[in-house]
Design a protein that fits this description.
This protein is of the alpha/beta class and 366 residues long. It has helices at residues 11-24, 35-39, 43-49, 61-69, 85-94, 103-115, 139-150, 177-188, 200-209, 339-345, 350-356, and strands spanning 6-9, 29-33, 55-58, 76-78, 97-100, 122-128, 155-162, 195-198, 217-218, 243-255, 260-261, 267-268, 273-278, 295-298, 301-306, 314-317, 329-333, 363-365. The protein has an 8-stranded parallel beta barrel with strand order 2-3-4-5-6-7-8-9, surrounded by 6 helices. The longest helix has 14 residues, at 11-24. 45% of the residues are buried.
Length: 366
């Protein structure tokens, strides 16, 4: 028998979350972002969950090819673009779109098209740095980059693109959504082509901003998996969890005041209490740094972790669940317990928890 821990991926929830994104941007096409193995949910399951998307976006070339091999015929976008000439050959062979964010990439593309003209045009997303200061051309450089790209005979459609730093807080004091939109408008003035500007947080801003935030293509990521991009809870955004990490109690200990639990004896009981031991640890992807008090469900009742998380086990307080015992179901996150609640308690974000589920955890789907 395998260990009782499982990660269940909810295909219907993925489909629902994609529809929520579409409802916020009814006039836009949608790239469903499936990088990092679909945020840990699996590319095969993403194909079913996001079958209605207009395209799939990721950064890994091998997985982009896998999408084609699995039968995805709609557009595929490589969000970091290409890194060398071999990547451009792969893009041409498998009809992949790529982002261009620096002149070195454009030079590679010029040389590739001159030496090995592709059989069909390569579509490119030209990225502007509007304040994230990660990748992209500055607004004042964007026009020249566009012109150089447009001059390549084998380049097809050019989509104008940027990425928001703080879209969950439209008036952020450092880099606001409004500042980035203004810079993008100035940098793209007079340039033709569709716009792609809205990540998950930006998608949720769209209904209230009207013409101030227009995106021909949206790029929802975390929201598709039931995590919040910030600002409000997933439930308030109308999202459903796409993954439930669950296990069972495999042991129970009755301890007294002054007894300690776990490595380092970090938790000391203030009185008599029952402690449950869960078959889940940091080798399964649960955050080792999650402190005492991190929320967890036992038999559907919310309680807390106690002591240090170890490699294969963690301990929980059974005081709110007196009837619990060996075999009781435990939800680490997912249905009934938002992943963001666990992430916040552990000082991280839901993105990291999704992506960290270990290969040894069996993945089911419903």
């Amino acid at each position: 028998m395998p260990r009782p821990i499982t990660a269940t991926v909810h295909i219907a929830s993925m489909q629902h979350n994609l529809e929520r994104a579409r409802a916020c941007a009814p006039g836009s096409k949608a790239w469903a972002v499936v990088k990092a193995n679909a945020y840990g949910h699996g590319l095969e399951r993403a194909l079913r969950g996001f079958a209605a998307a207009d395209g799939l976006a990721l950064i890994e070339f091998d997985n982009a090819v896998r999408l084609r091999e699995m039968g995805w015929t709609k557009p595929v976008l490589l969000l970091e673009g290409w890194f060398d000439a071999a990547d451009l050959a792969t893009m041409a062979r498998h009809d992949l779109n790529g982002a261009a964010h620096c002149m070195e990439q454009i030079a590679l593309l010029e040389d590739f098209c001159a030496r090995t003209p592709p059989a069909r045009p390569l579509n490119v997303h030209l990225k502007m740095n509007t304040g994230m200061n990660r990748l992209g051309f500055k607004p004042e450089q964007f026009g020249a980059a566009f012109a150089r790209l447009r001059a390549i005979p084998h380049v097809g459609e050019i989509t104008l693109m940027t990425h928001f730093a703080n879209a969950d807080e439209a008036n952020h004091p450092c880099v606001s959504l409004h500042q980035q939109l203004r810079r993008f408008a100035e940098g793209t003035a007079g340039l033709p082509g569709p716009r792609s500007v809205a990540n998950s947080a930006g998608v949720f801003q769209m209904p209230g901003m009207g013409d101030a935030l227009v995106s021909d293509w949206i790029r929802p990521g975390i929201m598709l998996y039931g995590g919040t991009p910030g600002g409000r809870t997933a439930a308030e955004y109308g999202l459903r969890p796409a993954m439930t990490l669950a296990s069972t109690l495999i042991g129970v200990q009755d301890i007294q005041a002054g007894d300690f639990v776990g490595y380092g004896s970090r938790f000391e009981a203030e009185g008599a209490m029952r402690i449950g031991v869960v078959a889940c640890g940091y080798a399964d992807g649960y955050p080792r740094h999650a402190p005492t008090g991190t929320p967890i469900l036992v038999d559907g009742v919310r309680t807390r972790t106690v002591g240090r998380v170890s490699m294969d086990m963690l301990a929980v307080d059974l005081t709110p669940v007196p009837a619990a015992g060996v075999g009781s179901r435990v939800v680490l996150w997912g249905e009934g317990l938002p992943i963001d609640d666990v992430a916040t308690a552990a000082g991280t974000i839901g993105y990291e928890l999704m992506c960290a589920v270990a290969p040894r955890v069996p993945v089911l789907e419903d």
